[in-house]
Write a structure and sequence with these properties.
By secondary structure, the protein is of the alpha+beta class. It is built from 17 helices and 16 strands. Bound molecules: histidyl-adenosine monophosphate.
């Protein structure tokens, strides 16, 4: 039997309803904050990710799906969305439009990761980027949109970790500080970290090996080395968050796994997720577009891991998304079967979700099926109903039954009270 590749998933109903519901909230929330959708290709030139995400990151170093196409060009399945947005901004000359641009995206990303709960090789991100604004207000607005999204889903226990990564000018000083702090314990670091110490010491702070994390806990924080400009920037972001009542904690160890960040960086952690607790990550990337050969255009953004989000979705939101009452129309007898599709179409045009019993199940078998699949409303259409222009409607949740004129069903369906909670 053929099997899907490791680290990929089939998204089946009814779970797909949760994804749709989450995506609807994302579109509505981010749209309400003035953003519009962007869709960029799922594969890009490999060079784009090497130059943006950074050569010494784990993503580029060992997690990319890279392949030559038939003409020998090196392509990569996108491991994240920001690089593609920056490339699209340049290529489509979006700088000629009024700045800033607020762009959101929803789609699959690919990383060759070691298998673990909450870590997939194809996963979906919901991202938002604000390109063309360098103010602390831009960071705060972005975080406000993100927070509003989580609030609308009903999350109450998420924690925003925030840090200042300083400006690129501060970086060499910080790298020296890390090297100096870690040099005496070099041998205790993992082989990767010994290499990182030479190539890009900041990456040591991002190592997933527990013993390295213990060692890295002692190095100085970036914020101690950073210049005034970045410290003031992040302080203003924090002041806005306080004003908005958005809770956060300052995490002086937070560095993020991608190279393009400066100043504000943040992650959202769910206490329910265990080791892969990070639901969302982001930050400011004012040099990214310039590094790709464009003008100095600032940006700030985040991406939410949709797979992880759905795993910890608040129960009330999930229940509402799953409870989609469909009318199950069961025609009994040949004459009713002839009429069923016509009737269903009329109800559908009136806004009802209708599922017709098209396999010819008997009423008894149909009721059994309704019970098994959690169907709530069964509409029975037999000879008597046909003669009287009515339909017999059974509400399995309320254990009630009524006869309705055919045209009254849509009104009945819209007025349906919520099902009582199951014991
Ligand atoms: P990231 O932290 O690499 O940032 O990924 C963002 C989120 O995607 C993570 O917090 C996590 O929830 C989810 N994620 C990452 N890898 C996996 C995986 N293998 N399986 C499941 N979920 C995963 C970025 O990608 C940046 N582009 C975010 C950003 C946007 N920064 C600025 N703008």
């Amino acid at each position: 039997m053929m099997q899907r590749p490791r680290g990929t998933r089939d998204l089946l109903p009814p779970e797909s309803r949760l994804w749709q519901a989450v995506e609807t909230v994302a579109r509505e929330t981010f749209g309400a904050f003035g953003s519009e959708e962007i869709r960029t290709p799922v594969f890009e030139p490999t060079e784009l990710f090497v130059r943006s995400v950074g050569e010494t990151t784990d993503i580029v170093h060992k997690e990319m799906y890279t392949f030559p196409d038939r003409k020998g060009r090196s392509l990569t399945l996108r491991p994240e969305g920001t690089a593609g947005v920056a490339r699209a901004w340049l290529e489509n000359r979006l700088g000629e439009r009024t700045q800033p641009l607020r762009l959101y995206y929803i789609g699959p990303m690919f990383r060759y990761e070691r298998m673990q709960r909450g870590r997939y090789r194809q996963f979906s991100q919901i991202g938002l980027e604000i390109v063309g604004a360098d103010t602390p207000l831009a960071d705060a607005e972005l975080l406000a949109a993100m927070h509003e999204f989580f609030v609308r889903l009903g999350f109450a226990d998420l924690v925003i970790h925030l840090n200042n990564l300083g400006d690129p000018e501060d970086r060499p000083r910080y790298q020296d500080a890390i090297r100096a702090a870690l040099a005496p314990r070099r041998e205790a670091l993992c082989a990767d970290c010994q290499r990182r110490l030479d190539e890009n010491p900041l990456r040591v702070l991002d190592c997933k090996v527990p013993s390295c994390q213990v060692i890295a806990a002692d190095v100085p924080a970036m914020d101690d080395v950073a210049g005034d400009a970045s410290r003031q920037h992040v302080a203003r972001v924090e002041a806005q968050l306080e004003r908005l009542g958005i809770p956060f904690v300052r995490n002086r160890r937070l560095v993020r796994g991608l190279d393009y960040y400066l100043r504000t960086v943040f992650e959202v952690v769910s206490p329910q997720l265990g080791t892969n607790a990070v639901l969302c990550g982001g930050g400011r990337y004012d040099r990214l577009i310039a590094d790709l050969g464009g003008p100095a255009v600032p940006g700030v953004g985040f991406a939410i891991g949709e797979d992880r989000l759905v795993e910890v979705l608040p129960a009330a939101f999930a229940a509402a998304a799953l409870a989609r009452p469909t009318v199950y129309l069961v025609p009994i007898g040949a004459a009713a079967q002839e009429r069923a599709l016509e009737l269903a179409r009329a109800w559908v045009r009136d806004g009802v979700a209708v599922e017709v019993e098209i396999t010819g199940r008997s009423l008894k078998a149909a009721l059994k099926r309704a019970d098994r699949d959690g169907v709530r409303i069964v509409a029975m259409l037999g000879d008597d109903e046909l003669a009287g222009g009515t339909v017999t409607v059974r509400d399995l949740a309320l254990a009630s039954q009524t006869a309705l004129p055919l045209a009254a069903l849509p009104g009945f369906w819209r007025a349906l009270p919520p099902a009582p909670a199951k014991p």
